[in-house]
Design brief:
This protein is an alpha/beta fold. The chain has 9 helices and 10 strands. The strands form 2 sheets. It has a 6-stranded mixed beta sheet, with helices on both faces. Strands 5-4-3-6 form a 4-stranded parallel beta sheet, sandwiched between helices.
């Protein structure tokens, strides 16, 4: 493994395994990696799933919340008593609510009403102020489009101006990708012993960007793929015909993402709503892993890779969040 692979270490390595965490912040990261032997039994190859729903806020976004806040503190952009604001589909907001609670900041989460209500309730329970934004006319609850997200962005900017708050901008701040470069990807490499490919459903693009950069620093032969919803694959350059897809937490039909260097992208994959839902349900019933829509999308994309160019190889994916966040949807009906 190359020098850069060893250089990035995660915080839990510096703590005795039998010692208590000093705060919830030290419970973020170092999540298990599980081989999906049952779901992949009919496929030619292996799939390793990173259980990001086992973070304290039940998603991978806890990692970026801690990274962005701590980097802002170090840069002098965030001070005691300040307010933090960010738009969210719920996961980044939950992560920021946890980090801000632990550090004593007030946090305002700005979220579309199209996202599942469990997320808003969880953020509020963690002490966040939640500003819910109406969807665009004709939008369907549970199907948040790029236009819906633009409304949320406008409201977030308004609140930042009014309160002179710090914007924890997950779409722009490099700490988003850096959290995954410094922590998530090194964990995967250490736990798996090596992979051949990685695929990731994109929202802000931070987890793809950070992981892909690290994997390619370790071995340029590792292939990294963007995953988008069928009919909303704008990053791949396709026409957007289904902006109101059902895979919550990403797929916002954005052609450009500030955090993603296209030189890291070896290909783009599309997953239908039906396939994402089927694979999410299979994760629960066959592997005992209770995850959300984007986890199913990642699994469906990995299955595509094993059925094609990566037959017989090792694929890594993230399971970004918990199925508990979708109990009010028809995912589990």
């Amino acid at each position: 493994m190359c020098q850069s692979c060893f250089a990035a270490r995660w915080r839990s390595d510096n703590l005795p395994h039998d010692a208590p965490c000093l705060s919830v912040l030290d419970a973020i990261g170092n999540t298990p990696l599980v081989e999906l032997s049952r779901v992949a039994s009919g496929l030619d190859g292996r799939i390793f799933a990173k259980l990001e729903f086992l973070n304290p806020g039940y998603s991978k976004k806890d990692r970026i919340a801690r990274q962005m806040i701590e980097e802002a503190e170090a840069a002098g952009a965030l001070h005691p008593g300040d307010t933090v604001v960010e738009l969210t589909s719920g996961n980044t907001g939950t992560g920021l609510a946890i980090v801000c609670a632990a550090k004593g900041y007030q946090f305002v989460a700005v979220m579309s009403r199209g996202n599942s209500i469990e997320r808003a309730r969880m953020m509020a329970a963690l002490g966040a102020e939640v500003a819910l934004v109406d969807q665009c006319p004709g939008s369907t609850p549970g199907e948040v489009s790029g236009a819906d997200l633009a409304r949320v962005e406008e409201k977030a900017r308004e609140i930042v101006r009014e309160r002179r708050a710090f914007r924890a901008d997950q779409f722009q701040l490099a700490g988003n990708a850096r959290a995954h470069y410094q922590h998530t990807a090194p964990e995967i490499m250490k736990q798996s012993g090596g992979i051949d490919a990685f695929c990731d459903f994109i929202g802000s693009g931070g987890s793809f960007a950070g992981c892909a950069r690290y994997f390619k620093a370790c071995d340029p032969a590792i292939q990294c793929y963007i995953v988008e919803p069928a009919g909303a694959a704008a990053f791949a350059g396709d026409a957007v015909t289904r902006p109101n897809h059902r895979i919550q937490g990403g797929g916002y039909a954005m052609r450009d993402l500030a955090l993603v260097d296209r030189a890291l992208v070896d290909g783009c994959l599309q997953v239908s709503d039906a396939d994402a839902i089927e694979m999410t349900r299979r994760l629960a019933k066959e592997e005992g892993l209770f995850a959300g829509y984007s986890s199913g999308a990642n699994l469906a994309a990995a299955a595509q890779l094993l059925g094609g160019a990566h037959k017989g190889e090792r694929i890594a994916i993230l399971l970004p969040d918990s199925g508990l966040k979708y109990l009010s949807t028809d995912l589990w009906s």
